[in-house]
Design brief:
Elements (H helix, E strand, L loop, with lengths): L2 H27 L2 E9 L2 E7 L4 H12 L6 E7 L3 E4 L22 E2 L13 E4 L9 E2 L3 E4 L6 H11 L5 H9 L12 E7 L1 H8 L14 E10 H8 L4
Antiparallel strand pairs: 1-2, 1-10, 2-9, 3-4, 3-10, 4-8, 5-7, 6-8, 6-9
Length: 239
């Protein structure tokens, strides 16, 4: 065996070893996830963020860690539809001020649509202003309270949007509800795993003509790294 050939074998072995260790490291990291907690005066909401919407996930986590959301309002609520927040202009906003246009200075996030990520009850999704690419606001989000849909309504949406619901998705929309009319138009990037009773309370608050609650509902969002097994055991969410 020549020295040149020997060194080639050593280098190749090291590369393989690095690849194995890197893969093991990635697997090890995937055993944990971030638990998102939205604290409000009406109770706390707990969520997880999807790994297959990485841009929205990482952006949300970054803002939460920077305490960007602290003292912002749920500035728009609509019963049987959703609750919306994350507008930086809502912090200390005077009563009666119309909100929902803030955060443009943060830019937009490219849409991340998946057929299996639909607007079911409890879905976390990105709000946005009209734009051809359906790119998301970097900070404004909403949580779906929703309503139940009929087979006829779902079939109409399939034709209109050129999408196809699975039998499980149809069953979910008919029995649990959601906001199917938003599917594939707004990015869904997480879901509530505990605290839908709080979402219901917020959604049914008295509100003005801009759908802003008369009584300010402030939020504080914190994230905590936790083992996935613990999240499953404590909140019943299955990865």
């Amino acid at each position: 065996m020549t020295k040149k050939y020997f060194f080639k074998i050593i280098i190749f072995t090291l590369i393989l070893g690095f690849g194995t260790n890197h893969a093991q490291s990635q697997t090890k990291k995937s055993k944990k996830d971030y638990l998102v907690e939205i604290k409000t005066s009406l109770g706390n909401i707990y969520l997880v963020l999807y790994e297959d919407t990485p841009n929205h996930r990482e952006n949300f986590l970054r803002l939460a860690k920077k305490k960007f959301f602290k003292d912002l309002l749920f500035h728009r609520v609509k019963p049987k539809f959703m609750i919306q927040g994350g507008d930086p202009e809502s912090r200390n906003a005077p009563k009666g001020k119309m909100l929902g246009a803030g955060g443009s200075e943060l830019g937009l996030i490219k849409a991340e649509f998946h057929p299996h990520r639909v607007h079911k009850r409890g879905a976390l999704a990105a709000a946005r202003r009209p734009n051809p690419a359906k790119a998301s606001s970097a900070c404004q989000f909403y949580i779906v309270q929703g309503r139940k849909f009929t087979d006829q309504e779902l079939s109409f949406l399939e034709t209109q949007k050129k999408i196809q619901y699975t039998p499980a998705q149809r069953k979910m929309y008919k029995e649990q509800g959601g906001a199917a009319m938003l599917d594939q138009d707004y990015t869904v990037y997480g879901e509530v795993i505990q605290g839908m009773d709080v979402v219901d309370k917020i959604a049914t608050q008295g509100r003005d003509r801009f759908d802003r609650p008369y009584k300010d509902i402030k939020m504080n969002i914190v994230v905590k790294r936790m083992r996935k097994k613990k999240i499953t055991k404590k909140y019943g969410y299955t990865y």
